[in-house]
Write a structure and sequence with these properties.
Elements (H helix, E strand, L loop, with lengths): L4 E5 L6 H14 L9 E5 L5 H8 L5 E5 L16 H6 L4 E4 L2 H7 L3 H13 L3 E6 L3 H5 L3 H13 L4 H4 L3 E4 L13 H18 L2 H5 L3 E4 L4 H8 L6 E4 L6 H8 L8
Helix pairs in contact: 1-2, 1-12, 5-7, 7-9, 11-12
Bound molecules: 1,3-dihydroxyacetonephosphate.
Amino acid sequence: MRTPIVAGNWKMNTSLAEGVALAQGIVSELNIARLGKADVVLAPPFTHLYRVAEIMANKPKLHLAGQNCHAAESGAFTGEVAAGMLRSLGASYVILGHSERRQLFGETDAGVAEKVEAALAQNLRPIVCVGEKLEEREADEQEIVVQKQLTQACFGLSEDDFRRVVLAYEPVWAIGTGKTASPEQAQEIHALLRKAVAKRYSDAVAENTSILYGGSVKPSNAEELFDQPDIDGGLIGGASLKVEDFLAIVYALPVARR
Ligand code: 13P
């Protein structure tokens, strides 16, 4: 069975002191016994990773993620961070192809595919983001768009490699806007992604692929989203910056509910 996951993407937020306080709050208040088979992932800015790794050390079910990495192993790439560097400080996940990277920093599907391979080569699990823009949703092109992103970013992988990929559906129009996809809208795309995985690999691989929803997830809407059969958790932006909100979203996972 697939792993339910709630991941906090802090984006470019928090000073080091604020980030440390946030991580300490999450680590000290999270009731790990409630998680069951679920995992919690924190993706702080690069500058905070080492400290947050220390705070999370030896905590089962808690994992560290980078928000991006470069495709090369090392070299003259000023300002970039390699997958192996993330691995070396204890990260086990990396977010790749986030829509902000695509829209603001010119990332392409082909570039995301290279990063996915680089991450897997360093034993990092990539959280690969797909999602349509507002104008694409308005033109009813969301299915074509996400299918293309998934195919180009991931379907060159072997089955063994793909098994370690986590997918995230993040409709661009729902990110940071307060507008959430309805549970039905999100479920529709999640089911489509899972079907595409089944077709490319197998039903068994599709069944075991965790597909997260991202885009204005809050404590008030997390349960209805996570209740959908193909939504396996969330990738949380704004609400991951408050301990109480983030934990409420973690506890909205069906496995963690009381
Ligand atoms: P918000 O939760 O702030 O909408 O951000 C979602 C996101 O982009 C997570 O990666």
